[in-house]
Amino acid sequence: MQDLAKTHNLDAFWMPFTANSQFKQSPRMMVSAEGMYYRTEDNRKVLDGTAGLWCCNAGHGRREISEAVSQQIHNLDFAPTFQMGHPLPFQFAEELAEIAPAGLGKVFFTNSGSESVDTALKIALAYQRAIGQGTRTRLIGRERGYHGVGFGGISVGGIVNNRKTFGSLLTGVDHLPHTLSIEHSGFSRGLPDYDPGWAESLQNIVTLHDASNIAAVIVEPIAGSTGVILPPKGYLKKLREICTQHGILLIFDEVITGFGRLGSPFAAQEFDVIPDIITSAKGLTNGAIPMGAVFVRDEIYDAMVSPESQAIELFHGYTYSGHPVAAAAGLATLNIYRQESLYTRASELSQYWEDAVHSLKGLPHVIDLRNYGLVAGIELSSIAGKPGSRAFQVFQACYEKGALIRVTGDIIALSPPLILEKHHIDELFNILSDVLSTIEYKE
Questions:
Q1: Which residues form the signal peptide (predicted)?
Q2: What single string gives the DSSP state of each residue in 370-408?
Q3: What is the DSSP string of 213-233?
Q4: CA 153, 159, 162 angle in degrees (round to 5)?
């Protein structure tokens, strides 16, 4: 197989979220993928332990999706959705509304999770103004939250490296505390019991600013990119109660947890907590074509879109909102999810997955293990003065042994395609166990 790293100049591509100099000295190149596996330029199979970047829930190389994309791009490559339309986004939105939590029947299309978050924040602000609550402009995120890389998303987000370079960001933003306490709930199986009143901290913010100034709260039901932080039992319900009490919109960022990752179509259904707005992307099209979607309560749409009005109600959107080729990919993806029962696949395998995750307890430098559905976080102790180095060395060693994992800081995050079988779980954790047991760290 052709060595792409040697036959192409790697200098021009400024890679995202990557140590560019380090990568280009020793590239890791994927050239094809099928099912649960990538294939590298040196013709090695690598088990996908991360569903790409949390997005390829139905696995790789799905012909149903590529054929739908091919047919659509021949029939209609692009059509505008500003004051015009074409059938596919209407059909796609209808099918999405059927699997969404009850009452969230309106869908606004974007092109990514970052755009979905910024869209949701803008809808929340516009809605509060539309119902005569224009003083409600404050937004509340959470420490260690990740909501993409738009200015709105990084403002409500709470990961320091995503924020520190970009100035003051949006004003009028507060943050709830994150919900991780290794001291009190380390090595929990599923949702932890320990909760010192994290949700009640929202009441403190209300007391400080008054509810009349707060538009929305946005949280990930399970925080993914920061290293898989789980909500304690009852936490999300309590957030819902406080938001409802004070007329504050609750936004769930389900870019990661949507489309079966936890054992239900959405985390809102898994935890029986219905927000006002849900953001999504990633699994929406199985990662095949960039696309995002924002699910909105019918009451929000009805408050903003009057049957008698002839004016544009929301001055927001993207050239590619509802793109025909992306919608075709999404419709094919939903069909796979339905036919192969992938929305509940995580629930069926969750116990086997949980046992595999916690089999790593006691291995060198493993200080916490967290799991729910088909997602896991493996936290390692840091090398003094070199945060993130230990996990990155594990990442490199696993890749060489044939498994793709994801690391954030010194936390390993796992989220395999939902088509995996028990023998794939065995393969993944055998590699991880071997690496964690034998690796000689460069300190």
A1: none
A2: EEETTEEEEEEPPBTTBTTHHHHHHHHHHHHHTEE-EEE
A3: GEEEEEE-SSB-TTT-BPPPT
A4: 65
Q: How many CB atoms lie within 10 A of CB 389?
A: 18
DSSP category for residue 282:
G
The domain 66-340 having CATH identifier 2.60.40.10: the answer here is no
Residue 19 structure tokens: 């140590």
Which tokens belong to 2? 């052709």
- Which token pair is 323? 């793109």
Residue with tokens 């696309």: 291
Fold of 20-57+342-438: Aspartate Aminotransferase, domain 1 (3.90.1150)
- Angstrom distance (rounded) from CA 192 to CA 233: 6
Considering the chain, tell me which residue range(s) the CATH 3.40.640.10 domain(s) occupy: 66-340
On whether the CB atoms of residues 338 and 330 are closer than 8 A, the answer is no
Q: Quickly tell me which residue has 């999405």 as its tokens.
A: 96
CA atoms within 13 A on the CB side of 331: 21
**pTM of the shown model:** 0.97
Q: Pick from 291, 321, 287: which is nearest to 86 by CA?
A: 321
Give the SS3 label for residue 292.
strand
pLDDT truncated to tens, each residue of the chain (443 aa)? Answer: 345 556 678 999 999 999 999 999 999 999 999 999 999 999 999 999 999 999 999 999 999 999 999 999 999 999 999 999 999 999 999 999 999 999 999 999 999 999 999 999 999 999 999 999 999 999 999 999 999 999 999 999 999 999 999 988 999 999 999 999 999 999 999 999 999 999 999 999 999 999 999 999 999 999 999 999 999 999 999 999 999 999 999 999 999 999 999 999 999 999 999 999 999 999 999 999 999 999 999 999 999 998 888 899 999 999 999 999 999 999 999 999 999 999 999 999 999 999 999 999 999 999 999 999 999 999 999 999 999 999 999 999 999 999 999 999 999 999 999 999 999 999 999 999 999 999 999 98
For the chain, the C-alpha Rg in angstroms (whole number) is 22
DSSP sequence for 155-214: HH---HHHHTTSTT-SSSEEEEPP---HHHHTT-SSS----SSTTTHHHHHHHHH-GGGE
List of residues 6+ apart from 79 with CB closer than 8 A: 85, 86, 324
The Cα 408–Cα 225 span in angstroms is 7
Helix (H, G, I), strand (E, B) or coil at 18: coil
For 274, residues 6+ apart whose C-beta sits below 8 A from its C-beta are: 101, 102, 103, 104, 240, 268
